[in-house]
Design brief:
With about 100 residues, the chain is mainly α. It has one domain. Helix content is about 85%, strand content about 0%. The longest helix is centred in the N-terminal third of the chain and has 30 residues. It starts with a helix and ends with a helix. The mean pLDDT is about 95.
């Protein structure tokens, strides 16, 4: 199913995007509105691991597929913007043919 580095990168990018949304829109409000910081601890840790995997797989895919620097920068910035990795996935789908 995830036989190529591009497919693995797409999966991790989507999971990283989901974890970012969970962190921003669920865990952080729970922390600040309900005073429960433990949710941020665990969701944040998961997001951090996924972000590191995202960066590693971005580097691997960029080298393997010879992506140009503007696209690499775009992919990195997409990981910093909420819902950005979902938009990135639409671009990556076109490359995955």
């Amino acid at each position: 199913m995830f036989s190529t580095n591009l497919k693995r990168f797409r999966l991790i990018a989507l999971l990283e995007g989901i974890s970012y949304i969970l962190l921003l829109f669920i865990a952080m409000p729970i922390k600040y509105m309900l005073g429960e910081p433990i949710v941020v601890k665990y969701v944040g840790m998961g997001h951090g691991v996924l972000f590191i995997l995202f960066i590693v797989l971005l580097a691997i895919a960029a080298i393997q597929y010879k992506w140009k620097l503007p696209f690499i920068i775009f992919a990195f910035i997409a990981s910093l913007i909420p819902f950005g990795t979902f938009y990135l996935d639409t671009k990556l789908k076109k490359l995955d043919n």
